[in-house]
Amino acid sequence: MNDTPLEGAGPDETLDSIGTAGVRVLQRRGGYRFTLDAVLLAGFAAVEGAGQGPVLELGAGSGVVSFLLARQFGREPVDALELQPAVCARMVRAVALNGLEGRVRPVLGDLREARTLLPSGAYALVVSNPPFRARSAGVRSPDEERALSKQELACDAAAVVAAARHALAPGGGVSLVYPAARLAEVLGLLTAARLFPRALRLVHARVGAPATRFLVHALRDSDRGLKVRPPLIVHGEGPGGYAPEVAALMEPPRAERDADTG
User: Fold this and answer.
1) N or C: which end of the chain has fewer CB within 10 A?
2) Do 142 and 136 form a contact (C-beta atoms < 8 A)?
């Protein structure tokens, strides 16, 4: 993930590059910065939610998941719902920088108002990399953008699941990423909303380390049984210190990079 000021970025912003398709993301230097979780979620959703039909991202932030789904994985159109006006405005600019006009459509709004903001049953796939920390957990960041992005101040897991339920077409799927400690809670919320977990993958920093995250894909009104996928190992001996599977999501092959810079 590059972190370099480039054309298109304001004085307090960076234009960061991520993924094999050269997705570019505008971020505020002192604000919330996207993490590897977004990349892992996009790759997982593209595999588990394979198919056709409109996509919705809940709490899109800088738009990295939406951009990756459209440009790297060919899933479009994507409606990218974001609560914060300044963050959404940067995403609008980044849509143009990525040439994704009409393919990724930023939407300013609150996912808790999904029933009035979004059409019912309109999406084949919903994705979300929501705030991870409960409202009462830890110290709140003094930066409002970071606080809203990291802590459940404006929504919680139940609101994310309810919005996904409203937006999904029958048989459609939702993909989420959360801390491993919240696995039982999130699976319970999904099942109660008749979003039946279909695929689960635990994310580990290294071989032998405890899981830190989980990725889950659930289907609306379709209980086909849960499949536990092999563990996803982040760090290893691949390019950039990543395990080969993760490295393959992060950067184009060396031959393509050399061609771009040659």
Assistant:
1) C
2) no
